[in-house]
From TrEMBL, chain A:
Primary site of residence: membrane
Keyword annotations of the record: Cell membrane, Elongation factor, GTP-binding, Hydrolase, Membrane, Nucleotide-binding, Protein biosynthesis
Intracellular or extracellular location(s): Cell membrane
Protein name: Elongation factor 4
Any one GO cellular component localisation term in the record: plasma membrane
GO biological process: positive regulation of translation
Membrane topology: Peripheral membrane protein
Gene3D superfamilies: 3.30.70.240, Elongation factor 4, C-terminal domain, Elongation Factor G (Translational Gtpase), domain 3, P-loop containing nucleotide triphosphate hydrolases, Translation factors
Tr-type G domain sequence ranges: 12-198
Function statement: Required for accurate and efficient protein synthesis under certain stress conditions. May act as a fidelity factor of the translation reaction, by catalyzing a one-codon backward translocation of tRNAs on improperly translocated ribosomes. Back-translocation proceeds from a post-translocation (POST) complex to a pre-translocation (PRE) complex, thus giving elongation factor G a second chance to translocate the tRNAs correctly. Binds to ribosomes in a GTP-dependent manner.
The protein's Enzyme Commission number: 3.6.5.n1
Length: 615, 332
């Protein structure tokens, strides 16, 4: 039996598919099992979750960057038993922040395996990605995983999936990625059910970039799905969105280590190496063609990734600013969605304003900065993008409370999202209460099964950024899942709340909130700061204010006694050492006017929690 | 070697020992170093460990100054402090000391003991003043880690008073002492006149040198030469092992009781001078400050924490309560 080679595989033998699953539902384990079953990795070389490369991914059990792997599979059932096919498993990011990347990965496939934990049922993000797959005309193969678990309820969740997809519960495949049970049937089903790719082999080449990864040794590795024509290692290629031309250094496929190939043709999935150093030069969604006799029409759907949420990141030790700058440069090589610019804060010193796709993206970037570059960081409260229209008709885009205009404001517009919550039905009340308190508008509710509901709300994105997810999890004992997608903007009665220490605005604590929650925000934060800031040699009033109007006030009483009464010969060394220690401690204080604020106070006050409009 | 100008026996209850032993120790100092004529020779004493005879013997043996650990005039406060003496014993001890002819007599008081009311404290200060002492030391109670008292606080059996209350007690003490004619010359020390100030303690605060003898005692001697590469060496400080048994063992074995020590370079000496001299009524010479420290002086004056003349900086009454904060500002 011969295995079809890259560049010489007829489309009829190709099947391109992805796996749609929620975090923890076993996608990586299933992918591992497929690698093993098709013999591209032997058990000894098997590393758990082979496809998730970065440490963070492995630890969090989530996949941030997609990958693609070529699996030769010899059919074991049906008329074509014995025929060797090539399956391309295209791994998709699982989280809501990366919807656009998901959509590009889906675009590279003809089929999708919908993988659902048989003990938990479908989750909101999975449902959202499923809808994306259906919109992209993918053939969906529903599969229940973890059927070996004692808590598995395959009948119940098969019915649920059948209800969503409009099929028969008996058609839902059942596997255990852990034991390997059912994996072969699934591979056979993929060949039988997923359509073979279709393209024009004689047309100028067109390939969709569905991922782009920075590698320290190779530069940017670009993952593509060839739609028409072929890409050969001798080509000079052109990025159609920018017209940039690059020398092709290498073409190949991943199986699961990179394997060089002379060319890849219609329907094939592989990688290109061109020597570019930044993933921004090789953007997801763009079309690759050849420089000479290239295509004129790009494949549709390219979109520039726009940051949805901004946050300031500041090194706790001001001396780390250059390290942070270098670290961001390095991360940007591998993260086209990351944008940043220098920013300074009266309270926090020098740092960067960073745009993210969403909260997870923010967390991942922050964690990578702290872990890989050994930085200690303070991040300011996440801020969505507001559009402020002034009475004179001019417009201001606000990504940071400090940019909020002071003049006469006509209207303020905030981004809104369509949010979907999936939850056991018993938490409907708690979820609705939460969404209502976050200015949500109920759009609809459906029962997925007897005891599981899908609740749809329109929610301001700013409210979601404000610890909504934590609040949702705590009100539903962790059972609810959330998905949201931006749908546009709405006018809202928003105000900027400033926090003043001794009459000085502390920029790091300013926030744009709805007028109705401004008071609660002000009272909560002022109260919290009172606990966090030590008494000073003078009274320190803490005020929350909207413009010049004070809406909440607390007072830190003046410190009256700070003296060690006794200091004789035997006390001198000890007392001096204490003084030296205090001097060091003072360096870590941030001065707000005359007020010494410990770093910890900023960190604690900015680490969201209960300052929110939820109160 | 210069003769000693002051001798101070303290840091416990020296008068637990027979007076003859204390006199012998003074004799040893006399032999080893020489004691200057007119030297100040102090012993601390517990009011219930002295008799007219023991005091007379000390005075005759060369002690010139006595400091009684009165602590409080209020029985429940003394009980909390684990002090066993009867407050009524204090006036007697003071009378005997006067009769024995001590030149200077000091009383030690402690405020801020858990359970002590403002009236309790007023009573203690007034009782002390009724005895017409030459000198009073008044300390806020410091709970030392590792003591039984600290464990009681940790277990919540006693509750330390609010710092603001303790500040009020300091102000009350200062008011009562000053109006009785005792002027502050160091944060926690008041004296009838310059002659009544404790010369020995002033030596600590002014960077003088001393030998410390006994378990846990610190010594400080000025350096005679610099150490290359470490900046100018100003002095050596070292201290003895703390436990009396360990100390005795070392001496018996003919070993030095020194436990550890440090060298004091010019920067460290500067820090110590600011730290200690700021606490004195004489204040800190402005010339002592580095430019950064000098720059904060006007703000400290504005805040009413210090007063200055052309040459010196002195704490205000309010500043005395915040002395450590002032020092931190000055050494920035």
């Amino acid at each position: 039996m011969t295995v079809p080679q890259p560049g010489a595989t007829p489309p009829s033998l190709l099947r391109n598919f992805c796996i749609i699953a929620h975090i923890d539902h076993g996608k990586s384990t299933l992918a591992d099992r497929m690698l093993q079953h098709t013999g591209v990795v032997d058990a000894r070389a098997m590393r758990a979750q082979y496809l998730d490369r970065m440490d963070i991914e492995r630890e969090r059990g989530i996949t941030i960057k997609s990958q693609a792997v070529r699996l030769p599979f010899t059919k074991s059932t049906g008329d074509d038993a014995g025929t060797t096919y090539v399956l391309n498993l295209i791994d998709t990011p699982g989280h809501v922040d990366f919807t656009y990347e998901v959509s590009r990965s889906l675009e590279a496939c003809e089929g999708a395996v919908l993988l659902v934990d048989a003990a938990q049922g479908i989750e909101a993000q999975t449902l959202a990605n499923l809808y994306l797959a259906i919109d992209a005309d993918l053939h969906v193969i529903p599969v229940l995983n973890k059927i070996d678990l004692p808590g598995a309820q395959p009948e119940k969740y098969a019915a649920e999936i059948a209800h969503i997809l409009g099929g028969d519960p008996d058609d839902v495949l059942r596997v255990s990625a852990k034991t390997g049970e059912g994996v072969e049937s699934l591979l056979n089903a993929i060949v039988d059910e997923v359509p073979a790719p279709v393209g024009d082999a004689d047309a100028p080449p067109r390939a969709l970039i569905f991922d782009s990864v920075y590698d320290t040794y190779r530069g940017v590795v670009t993952y593509v799905r060839v739609v028409d024509g072929k890409l050969t290692h001798r080509d000079r290629i052109k990025m159609m969105s920018t017209g940039a031309v690059h020398e092709m250094l290498e073409v190949g496929v991943i199986s699961p280590e990179p394997v060089k190939a002379g060319e890849i043709g219609v329907g094939e999935v592989g990688y290109l190496i061109t020597g570019v150093k930044e993933v921004r030069q090789s953007r997801v969604g763009d079309t690759v063609t050849s420089n000479v006799h290239g295509a004129t029409e790009p494949l549709g759907g390219y979109r520039h990734p726009n940051p949805m949420v901004y946050s300031g990141l500041y090194p706790i030790d001001g001396d780390d600013y250059p390290t942070l700058r270098d670290a961001l440069e390095k991360l940007q090589l591998n993260d086209a969605a990351l944008s940043y610019e220098p920013e300074s804060s009266g309270a926090l010193g020098f740092g960067f304003r960073i745009g993210f796709l969403g909260l997870l993206h923010l967390e991942i970037v922050r964690e990578r900065l702290e872990r890989e570059f050994n930085l200690d960081l303070i991040s300011t409260a996440p801020n969505v993008v507001y559009r402020v229209v002034m009475e004179d008709g001019s417009e201001v885009t606000v990504t940071n409370p400090s940019e909020y205009p002071t003049g006469k404001i006509a209207t303020v517009h905030e981004p809104v999202t369509k949010a979907t919550v999936l939850s056991p039905a018993e938490y409907i009340g708690a979820i609705m209460e939460l969404c209502q308190s976050r200015r949500g508008q109920l759009q609809g509710m459906d029962y997925l099964s007897e005891d599981r509901v899908e609740i749809r709300y329109t929610l301001p994105m700013g409210e979601i950024m404000f610890d909504f997810f934590d609040a949702l999890k705590s009100r539903t004992k962790g059972y609810a899942s959330l998905d949201y997608e931006p749908t546009g903007e709405q006018e809202a009665d928003l105000v900027k709340v400033d926090i003043l220490l001794q009459g000085e605005v502390v920029d790091a604590f300013s926030a744009i909130v709805h007028r109705d929650s401004a008071y609660a925000y002000g009272v909560a934060l002022a109260g919290r700061l009172k606990e966090l800031i030590p008494r000073q040699q003078f009274e320190v009033p803490i005020q929350a204010a909207i413009g010049a109007r004070v809406i909440a006030r607390e007072n830190i009483r003046a410190l009256r006694k700070d003296v060690l009464a006794k200091c004789y010969g035997g006390d001198i060394s000890r007392k001096r050492k204490l003084l030296e220690k205090q001097k060091e401690g003072k360096k870590r204080m941030k001065m707000v006017g005359r007020v010494e604020v410990p770093q910890e106070a900023f960190i604690a006050a900015l680490s969201t929690g209960d300052t929110g409009s939820s109160s | 070697m210069p003769q000693v100008d002051t001798v101070f026996v303290g840091g416990g209850t020296p008068t637990q020992l027979p007076s003859a032993d204390l006199v012998r120790m003074l004799g040893a100092a006399r032999e080893r170093f020489g004691v200057a004529p007119g030297a100040e020779v102090t012993t601390e004493a517990n009011p219930d460990s002295v008799t007219p005879e023991s005091l007379a013997e000390l005075r005759e043996g060369g002690f010139t100054r006595i400091s009684f650990g009165m602590q409080s005039a209020v029985p429940h406060v003394l009980a909390t402090l684990d002090r066993t003496h009867d407050p009524a014993r204090v006036p007697e001890a003071v009378r005997w000391a006067r009769e024995a002819g001590f030149e200077q007599l000091s009383l030690d008081l402690i405020y801020g003991t858990p359970g002590e009311s403002m009236d309790d404290w007023r009573r203690s200060v007034e009782s002390a003043l009724a005895l017409d002492p030459d000198h009073v030391s008044a300390y806020a109670l410091i709970v030392e880690q590792g003591t039984a008292f600290a464990r009681k606080v940790a277990r919540g059996e006693v509750v330390m008073p609010d710092d603001d209350k303790t500040a009020d007690k300091y102000l009350l003490a200062d008011e009562l002492l000053e109006s009785a004619g005792l002027g502050w010359y160091e944060l926690s020390n008041w004296a009838r006149d310059e002659a009544a100030q404790c010369r020995h303690n002033l030596l600590y605060w002014r960077g003088g040198q001393w030998w410390g003898i006994g378990p846990g005692a610190h010594s400080y001697l000025h350096a005679s030469a610099g150490v290359p590469g470490r900046g100018r060496l100003v002095g050596h400080r070292w201290w003895n092992v703390k436990h009396p048994a360990a100390y005795a063992q070392r001496l018996a074995a003919g070993e030095s009781p020194r436990q550890d020590g440090e060298t004091i370079d010019a920067d460290t000496a500067h820090l110590e001078r600011v730290m200690l001299q700021t606490r004195l009524r004489d204040g800190l010479p402005l010339a002592e400050l580095h430019p950064a420290g000098r720059a904060v002086v006007p703000a400290l004056v504005d805040r009413g924490l210090v007063v200055t003349d052309d040459e010196r900086l002195t704490l205000s009454l309010q500043g005395r309560l915040l002395a450590d904060a002032v020092v931190r500002d000055l050494v920035d």
